[in-house]
Amino acid sequence: MRGRFITFEGIDGAGKSTHIEWVAARLRERATVVTTREPGGTPLGEDLRGLLLHRKMGLETEALLMFAARREHIAEVIEPALARGDWVISDRFTDATFAYQGGGRGLPRERLEVLEQWVQGDLQPDLTLLFDVPLETAAQRLANAREPDKFEAESRAFFERTRAEYLRRAAEAPGRFRVIDATRSIEDIRVTLEEILSSF
Ligand code: ADP
Ligand code: TYD
């Protein structure tokens, strides 16, 4: 039987990475679980991640490299795992490109839809957990946590647009998305995650 594909999304500092290993551990009671991330997830993809997170580049170039890394990730990791019956959890996937390159940077959505169709065909996550917080909360969490990369150094307006595009994608595909109020404590969020996973 084919495995299931779960993605974690949210603006930087929302808290998604905090929960990935915990969710993976819960799901390992039910299946073999592969955890991975974007951009990245393959040796080539991790090299591209280094460029994407630290080098200045044109907007179209950035979007194309995101999808190039994703193509490799799908072909080398995601599809083979799902075909084996493993479950795949990815820290970000295509919704991030719509949110950051589309919403944040302003690349027309129609361009991204063409690339999405080309690179993924019918592949979509079975479940997307969107960790949603106001920008102030995300910024406060990041300020205490780490040195900003290229995206994390972006403006408040950029993240307003990024968050809005995430919420628009969620409204467009309500069967796939669960929007999580991530302003709450880690323990409270885990209770919600437990509920979502038990009915998935
Ligand atoms: P993301 O992966 O969404 O960028 P992280 O999971 O790395 O975010 O979390 C960013 C920072 O916020 C980390 O220092 C983390 O410990 C902290 N954090 C995560 N979730 C919460 C929470 N629910 N309440 C308070 N702090 C949190
Ligand atoms: P992230 O998972 O936040 O890494 P970390 O938690 O280690 O900082 O992802 C790295 C950055 O890449 C993040 O700021 C969002 C950005 N990104 C895009 O702009 N477009 C994309 O398609 C993806 C997958 C990520």
From TrEMBL:
Pfam families: Thymidylate_kin. SUPFAM superfamilies: P-loop containing nucleoside triphosphate hydrolases (SSF52540). Its EC number is 2.7.4.9. Keywords: ATP-binding, Kinase, Nucleotide biosynthesis, Nucleotide-binding, Transferase. GO terms for biological process: dTDP biosynthetic process; dTTP biosynthetic process; dUDP biosynthetic process. One of its GO terms (molecular function) is dTMP kinase activity. Residues 8-189 form the Thymidylate kinase-like domain. Signal peptide: none annotated. InterPro entries: P-loop_NTPase, Thymidylate_kin-like_dom, Thymidylate_kinase. It is an enzyme of class 2 (transferase). ATP binds at residues 10-17. It catalyses: dTMP + ATP = dTDP + ADP. GO terms for cellular component: cytosol. NCBIfam families: DTMP_kinase. Belongs to the thymidylate kinase family. Phosphorylation of dTMP to form dTDP in both de novo and salvage pathways of dTTP synthesis. This is Thymidylate kinase. The gene is tmk.
